[in-house]
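Record type: ASSEMBLY
Status: queued
Input:
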Amino acid sequence: MKTTKGFCDYSGQEALKRTKVKKTIEETFRSYGFEPAETPIIEYEEFVKENNPNDDAVSETFKLQDRGKRKLALRYEFTFQLKRLMKNKKLPYKRYQIGQVFRDEPISANRFRQFTQCDIDIIGSTIKDEAEILKTISDILKKLKIDFTINVNNRKLLNEILEEQKIKEKDKKEIIREIDKLDKLSEKEVKKNLKKYEAEKIIEILKKPKTYFKKYKSYEEIKELEKFCKLYKIKINFQPNLARGLSYYNGTVFEVKSSKMKETILGGGSYIFDKIQCTGYGAGLDRITTLAKIQTENNKILIISLNQDKKAIEIAEKIRESVPVQIFYGKPGKALEYANSYKIPFVIFIGKEEIKKKKIKIKNMETGKEKLISENQIKKYLS
RNA sequence: GCGAUUGUAGUUCAGUGGCAGAACGUGCGGUUGUGGUCCGUAAAACCCGAGUUCGAUUCUCGGCUCUCGCUCCA
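Status: finished
Output:
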């Protein structure tokens, strides 16, 4: 069966890996005191637009209508929904959310129209929180054995440079977009595009060494972020041409890349909602899962009931408290083939013989070795 | 959205203007208490629509879809 353009099925090992990655991410978020939230997938179109009517992401929303002809849209991210969640919350409000978002946009490798985002935000944040947020990234990616670089910039700094160059207010957005392409397009091309706005000079500035930027007032923010990142023992890479698309960012912006993937695996920054400074990021679960080098070991046990269903169920219920257990009602030959097929490492035979001896026979599927043990030795055997 | 490319069982791939094939996988059996081997057997596909034709899965056109770029993004 084919899936619709940009929408995917996940099953078997792949689904298992996704679940595991999701769990790792969620546990990390929680370990920093973030609490979960859930929001609707469908929203009024107006609410979706309200936040950033000019953002490209907004024009990419899937639109739909209900029976009352109300205009609705599928969420394209989580951040705008935070506006509702943050109301009347004691600050800082730290929440994470993992869920599906939808964008009606062109697809390519590692780019889909339905994908899972892992989002965390701190409502009411300072630069110290930004460092903490960056640390969560480092924690997650290390656990998943993904190599990464955190590229960081600051929108204020970018603005300061644009001001210095006397760039017209209306051109700023376009120029920021052009310079964001610097790591993709050649310098020549970007320069050509910037000529339209008489802003070619900017490219020279952005090429300068880090020390050059110290003269800007907003560089203080980068310095402070670096100071706190040091306390968390994480490395960040200052990249002056990094801008990021979403227009609501107002300070630090960052983007995480891996050498194994062209696409950005995670992006975020700081923004203002209702005069409250916030910071956060969205990570692409699909991309992270693709990169994650983790084993999806199967610790399941298959109990083979040889016409001893009562006992099989009884034992399954007992073991289930600590290890996943599945009962197979049928011939042993079939059962073993089944275990092979799903890579189940242990099977337990429950038949007349076992009942008579008041033991169970447990078999290691890899070595083929069998052992008669008593019920309460199972846990010990497995460890 | 634009340009290029692709489309045949669940998967990977053959093939033909006239009955559509394999391998792997799946089901059943050989094997009613022991698997990863073997043997037998079954189910299972020509992306959709129009046109040309006695006849189209094959040729033509359109759509959809796959993959890769571009714009943009997680």
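Annotation: The mean pLDDT of chain A is 88.
Annotation: The CA atoms of residues 109 and 263 of chain A lie 9 Å apart.
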